[in-house]
## 1
Amino acid sequence: MSCENETAVALRDAGQKVTPQRMAILSAVRHAGEHVTATRVIEQIQAAQPYVDPSTIYRTLSSARELGLVSETDMGTRDAEFEWIGKDRHHHLICKSCGTAMSLDNRYLDGLATQLIEELDFEADLGHFAIFGTCAKCRTQNREEN
Amino acid sequence: MSCENETAVALRDAGQKVTPQRMAILSAVRHAGEHVTATRVIEQIQAAQPYVDPSTIYRTLSSARELGLVSETDMGTRDAEFEWIGKDRHHHLICKSCGTAMSLDNRYLDGLATQLIEELDFEADLGHFAIFGTCAKCRTQNREEN
DNA sequence: CTTGCACATGCAACCAGTTGCAGCTACTAT
DNA sequence: ATAGTAGCTGCAACTGGTTGCATGTGCAAG
């Protein structure tokens, strides 16, 4: 099954409609590889189809997030980053000092999820997570300065 | 030392000035007990001092966040929640179904922080964290419906 | 006490993102 | 194939939050 079909099926399963606009928007996120801002998606879509309204793009991204097709994460910059949720779930470590974003494998949070469900009966949705802090490089630099 | 003095000292230590507006704004957050939205702070401040501009409040909250005096968390609602960072650091579990926010003790994330520093040399700043998911009550209800 | 200056404030213009609404379109049932 | 309907789209108005700038103010040095 092609990725276009997968997306279409996911939409229909949720009782939503498959429209050219939605497919273009979701395809842009999917093929971005990395995380993209809504603004970036708008630019990209409007370059090809200028008549697509920004509100449609915001609405589509927002409903796709609710469906679990994409994740929305505040990476510390002004506007939120969207990312296609594929097979390789991962999170981000963001250095507050240099702004670098690193991927963090899912397994680091598995333990936490297990603990929450066992001890508190809370089913955590750890699909998307941004952890702020200081990376190794910046920590070394800070030590040298002091 | 009174809490007012603590706040003032923290500001001055960071090379910032102590003004009546700032003290009023930070005091509102500190004494809110729970988390408060910027909008709520604006209402509260303007009830007493109508001349204080919203932009001042946004700027103050934002710089206080950078100083680590308050935390800013997206609780899933439209606007961010601010909370005074006291001795009892904690996080929030937010149910996507019923919207309830529960406090989560810091110890649940200590393990993760340790793992990150030992394995990846990344010093995580886990001062404020919002974990989305489904609470026990809503999970039970969902099971009954199916 | 006075002076200087960096930081903070209020104002107003601005902008990204949201919402209400009327028309349109994908999907479903017949 | 057709009609009905629920959901989507574009438009335009709106709103919460941000930014630039001129003025005001806290604070430290003299």
Note: Strands of chain B lie at 36-37, 70-73, 81-84, 90-95, 101-105, 123-124, 130-134.
## 2
Amino acid sequence: MSGAKSMSMELPLDQILRGECVETMRTLPSGSVDCVFADPPYNLQLRGELRRPDDSLVDGVDDDWDKFSDLQEYDRFTRAWLTEARRVLHKDGTIWVIGSYHNIFRIGAILQELGFWILNDIVWRKSNPMPNFRGRRFTNAHETLIWAARSEDSRYRFNYQAMKALNDDVQMRSDWYLPLCTGNERLRNEHGLKLHPTQKPESLLHRVLLASTTVDDVVLDPFTGTGTTPAMARRLRRRFIGIERHPDYVEAAMSRVARETPLADDAVVTTQDKREAPRVPFGSLVELGLLPVGTVLCDKKQRVNATVSPDGTLVSGTKRGSIHKLGAQLTNAPSCNGWTFWHFERNGEFLPLDVLRQESLDLAKTAAATAKAAAAG
Amino acid sequence: MSGAKSMSMELPLDQILRGECVETMRTLPSGSVDCVFADPPYNLQLRGELRRPDDSLVDGVDDDWDKFSDLQEYDRFTRAWLTEARRVLHKDGTIWVIGSYHNIFRIGAILQELGFWILNDIVWRKSNPMPNFRGRRFTNAHETLIWAARSEDSRYRFNYQAMKALNDDVQMRSDWYLPLCTGNERLRNEHGLKLHPTQKPESLLHRVLLASTTVDDVVLDPFTGTGTTPAMARRLRRRFIGIERHPDYVEAAMSRVARETPLADDAVVTTQDKREAPRVPFGSLVELGLLPVGTVLCDKKQRVNATVSPDGTLVSGTKRGSIHKLGAQLTNAPSCNGWTFWHFERNGEFLPLDVLRQESLDLAKTAAATAKAAAAG
DNA sequence: ACCCCACCTGAATCTGATA
DNA sequence: TTATCAGATTCAGGTGGGG
């Protein structure tokens, strides 16, 4: 199955090598690892300081390792480490690289140019992202992982059934909903400050390793940091090779790994992903055309009415607001459930908006069932 | 506001030009459009035909326009049309490009190389994606849109409040959950077969246009296809320029546009950003007598207070300054929004100055309406 | 033990008009 | 071009103290 381990060369297994990533990879034999997980610098290019609306300062990434003079230098760096990673990878191996819009397009383009074969782009949707404090863009609520085989004809590993099981017995999709690394999981120094600015959550690596490797596979992480990859590899009984430049991180990561207990033989697919509540923003009913812009809504006794705007707000005279806010305002109530307060006309009778909400959920459910049936054949 | 339309050149507005996209863009003047939405060919590398588990054939993308001999050719094509798009775009304009992992990394990298400034990458999560029939990858359940300004210093449009309203009054995130284009919305030929393999849903364009353009803005779609962009532009009272190579699509799109009814003046209005509201100098509230000289203001928790001067400054002890300056000074904050910081007493409760600002705007609006009625009567 | 609330934090390319 | 200043802007979740 996994070819790399059959080579049985003298690999520095279950170690974190201190050193530059390209140089250190050069010391590893070709075709010797089954999987690479890489979390390279993102080249964020942050400029001034950023403050929250309450004037508190955002603790941004200002480390030297994320500073590049320009795109060309970042591309050279990227091409260099991806070239080595490809050499070290077994012919049937796969690579994962995570990034944001700052760097992921560079990475993806270079991966393709080097002959990697992209299998999926995976979206890590953050359940608790940092908001956009200035209101100038959409909340940057996700990061992207690229999953690629070493080449077009690699016979790569994908544990389809394990992923399906992990996802309530429907195919695992390319969008993953996972929280950030916070709380106890986040490594901290003696002052309680985060040890590393970009520590990844264990749930992410758990899914990555479970999807694309098997027991005893060798996983290489060229940017190990605080060692999430080694820790999850040990827990899931994979072998790891870490590479990390900073001695403090090497030490922190190794003691973290030492605290991990490998799972027993029979323990495998256990973790469940956090299910999302099927929230329906009122605006989406408008976008979907279930409720045309300009529709006039009224309360049950038709004492007040309001018109639907393109952005999902309601307008009544000079007043504008969400279905809840405007309902409260027009009735002088402290609060109001707009879903039950506002009614629309259908076949001569007035129905609450809640009917439409339910219908939109049913639509989604039917579509999902159809897709599943098609998949089942 | 939107710079492009003020140029009033002879643009082929509200038309779909039949022709090759680069050539046709060359006929348009520089800086003449406010927004570009592009759904270019995806360079799908489907090797041979794809069959479902029941051996039925998947009607994939295999039209002539999607055949590119290799990555280099696709890059050349991409660079060519993006270069023209950038020339045609107003300096403060933005571009949207949608793609999948097959092409989006080429597009993103070239966008950056041409000097576009990426604002967000947006994930369109499909509520009803096609399942992965072979079980060899994750279900490809999303597509990616890149939203970018023409350059780093573009003062681009983002209708923050409208997006927030559309999402139940929390910031719109970078992941959008929308269904595929199916059912009645999908254009079909006389045999009931879909007219175009990749028709985009109207809900997607509704959100795109509502986020990044305003009424009468000019939107260019260089790969118009069945005309979802023109149709939504017409509905939302934006102007459009379409470009499409295939005469059948041009015809289908134009008759589709003709079936759209533009929203009425008052129906197309969305929640306004405060930045766009008319500016009210604090001093004018004093002049208008809405806030008498000598009134004592305090912060919400009544920890500091200050007195209103005739010139619209506040005085607190020996300190004097604008509502913003003094608020910042008294709280040792780098900045302060005096409108929300300072409160005045009315009927026993403390209200922020912002209430008075709104009231002065309402007064002005009422006065204008009265004047208009008098003139008409 | 439990609830409530105040406070803290996260890979962030985070203002714009006017003088 | 640069300096100045008005004023717009946050969500989910964890932690910890007090009642």
Note: Residues 353-376 of chain A form the longest helix (24 residues).
